[in-house]
Write a structure and sequence with these properties.
Number of helices: 7
Radius of gyration: 22 Å
Distance between the termini: 24 Å
Shape: elongated
Structural class: alpha/beta
Bound molecules: NADP nicotinamide-adenine-dinucleotide phosphate
């Protein structure tokens, strides 16, 4: 909003202060909780905008404002922040969403916007866990046929093609939305589900489908931890993809620390 005044032939342009925005990069349960907390503690002074990639059909309840879809790369993200008056960016994306975190790092540096990343702690390995850590999905697909014949696959829709070569494996695939294209491997079944999941239900699911291996990413977080406990109880091996490196710059492992950081930016 701006106000123009004409005085003695001179045009004076006075900018009225806009209400500034906190930009939360979302797509996770933690981002919803973070936006909720920001609305409660800072909603009277700032707009809280959660940005979603738009991968899921019905993302669920979201506090504050929501914008959906990619920004169109780093420079358009920087421009969005300038146009929207973003005073801080809180990156609460999934640990495997490395591209958007890197884009945010560069865009914030360009636009002079302070940024922090909320990075979930890794899951802790318990004595009876049989975790086989793998550097990437291709490595999992390469060793999987020697480990399991009936596999519970929980890596997300966009990663299924990595298992196209596993022709003799039967997959139980869990996705948030049912896919609209056929599975890229010959044998399997899709179920839809969104965390949090309970241990007993995960155990029952694996028993019912005679699962003999679990494939997942080292995502961390409470919402999807139950499958690891179920696998431990059933003595099932877990092929787990290692995380990409955390974004550089300020990082916190809990929502309270992110909110404290934000307070320091604006007081
Ligand atoms: P990615 O590879 O890091 O990002 C790919 C592109 O998607 C980005 O360059 C950006 O497009 C757009 N994008 C991603 N997250 C966005 C966001 N929050 N707001 C606006 N644009 C976003 O991301 P991904 O691994 O595909 O994950 C997509 C989203 O799903 C993330 O927000 C993440 O939190 C969530 N998620 C991911 C996983 C996973 O395993 N990767 C699991 C659960 C949830 P532009 O370059 O056009 O801006």
């Amino acid at each position: 909003m701006s106000l123009s005044l004409r005085a003695t032939g001179v045009l004076w342009r006075m900018s009225a202060p806009e209400r500034r925005a906190i930009l939360v990069l979302g797509g996770t349960a933690e981002a919803v909780k973070l936006a909720d907390r920001l609305m409660t503690e800072w909603g009277d002074r700032f707009d809280v905008v959660t940005s979603l990639a738009g991968r899921t059909q019905a993302p669920g309840r979201m506090p504050g404002e929501v914008r959906v879809g990619g920004f169109g790369g780093v420079s358009l993200m920087a421009r969005y922040m300038e146009d929207r008056g973003v005073c801080a960016l809180l990156d609460a994306t999934h640990p495997f969403a490395a591209q958007i975190s890197e884009n945010a790092r560069i865009a914030c540096a360009t636009a002079g916007v302070p940024r922090i990343a909320l990075v979930r702690p890794l899951w802790e390995h318990a004595p009876n866990d049989n975790w086989l850590m793998q550097p990437d999905l291709a490595a999992v697909a390469a060793v999987l046929p020697g480990i399991g014949k009936r596999v519970f696959l929980t890596v997300g829709r966009t990663n299924l093609s990595a298992f196209a070569s596993c022709e003799d494996t039967w997959f139980l695939v869990r996705l948030i939305d049912m896919p609209d294209t056929p599975l890229p491997f010959p044998a399997g079944q899709v179920i839809s589900g969104r965390g949090p999941f309970a241990v007993a239900a995960e155990q029952r699911l694996m028993e019912e489908h005679k699962i003999d291996a679990l494939v997942c990413k080292a995502s961390g977080g409470e919402a999807t931890r139950a499958k690891l406990v179920a696998a431990r109880r059933l003595g099932i091996p877990v092929l787990m993809v290692e995380r990409p490196p955390a974004p550089t710059g300020p990082v916190a492992d809990n929502i309270g620390a992110v909110v404290d950081w934000f307070e320091k930016q604006v007081t």
